[in-house]
TrEMBL record:
It comes from Nonomuraea mangrovi. Keywords: DNA-binding, Transcription, Transcription regulation. Residues 7-139 form the HTH marR-type domain. InterPro entries: HTH_MarR-typ (IPR000835), WH-like_DNA-bd_sf (IPR036388), WH_DNA-bd_sf (IPR036390). SMART domains: HTH_MARR. This is MarR family winged helix-turn-helix transcriptional regulator.
Length: 147
């Protein structure tokens, strides 16, 4: 077996970057009462009112059981409401409440500050290159997942 030193493993660098971003967003969201997964769910809900829990889980890259926990906590906090779909009664549509919209607006201001700070570390050309390279990582990993 040929081992690869950890510093040379791209996966290690990607994971560390993701963890650092998550920690920075978690710190930024602290005053809003939201966790990063809750913020992500509210953000996707704001763009996709009525989305199902399964579709929301895919959009947020979490498992269905995790999303159900996130949604239950958001509903108990009065930030979302869930109601049966008009035609598919076994599917619950999820929407932000007025309170949810207000909390999301504050949380998004804080999260965008983190994103802008990160973006400022790169020139516009470097940002474009980074996005392209990360896209290639994603494409490759998704194509080999089914191989």
């Amino acid at each position: 077996m040929t081992s690869m030193p950890v510093p040379e493993r791209l996966g290690s660098h990607l994971k560390r970057a993701e963890q650092a971003l998550s920690a920075a967003k978690s710190a930024a969201l602290k005053g809003t009462g939201l966790t990063v997964p809750q913020y992500a769910a509210l953000l996707h809900l704001s763009d996709n009112p009525g989305i199902s829990a399964a579709a929301l889980a895919r959009a947020c890259a979490v498992t269905a059981p995790t999303m159900n926990t996130v949604l239950r906590n958001l509903q108990e906090s009065g930030l979302i409401e869930r109601s049966p779909h008009e035609w598919h009664k076994n599917i619950l549509e999820t929407r932000l409440t007025e309170k949810g919209e207000k909390v999301l607006a504050e949380a998004d201001t804080r999260a965008v500050r983190v994103e802008r700070g990160l973006a400022a570390e790169f020139s516009p050309e470097e940002r474009d290159t980074l996005v392209t390279l990360l896209g290639r990582c994603i494409d490759h990993l998704q194509s080999t997942r089914h191989a």
